[in-house]
Amino acid sequence: xxxxxxxxxxxxxxxxxxxxxxxxxxxxxxxxxxxxxxxxxxxxxxxxxxxxxxxxxxxxxxxxxxxxxxxxxxxxxxxxxxxxxxxxxxxxxxxxxxxxxxxxxxxxxxxxxxxxxxxxxxxxxxxxxxxxxxxxxxxxxxxxxxxxxxxxxxxxxx
Length: 158
Prior knowledge:
The protein is built from seven helices and no strands. It has a single domain, classed as Arp2/3 complex 21 kDa subunit ARPC3, CATH 1.10.1760. The chain has helices spanning 3-29, 38-48, 52-69, 76-94, 101-122, 130-133, 136-157. The two termini are 25 Å apart. Helix content is 78%, strand content 0%. The longest helix is centred in the N-terminal third of the chain and has 27 residues, at 3-29. The protein is mainly alpha-helical.
């Protein structure tokens, strides 16, 4: 296969993957009792494995795809995911140099906290009950577990 065809199929595959992931997020995860942001977990995973360019692109496009469905201002999810990706890319160069269980759990939990804090700030702040009614505790745990499981599969395949 020609190199230019590989690039085209790679981009098309990534777009199809993100659309399917957005469909799963919007159709199944958002309405259910499971509070997990697949795009946040994906962006944090890509930052942890140091695939920074993909993390930025997936944060932007994934935020746009999920933001189209929400009734808030378009682009808030994308902006929050981009800020989180940038912060964790910078922190990853200095703080998270090794992939211990503690650092993966810390990245997952702090990523969820920063995401919800950014969403709260970008949508105008307001009532602090936002942090107590959205199932953030369940999302903290599920995101950290998802990152740990993804990294376990990654290290097995290497």
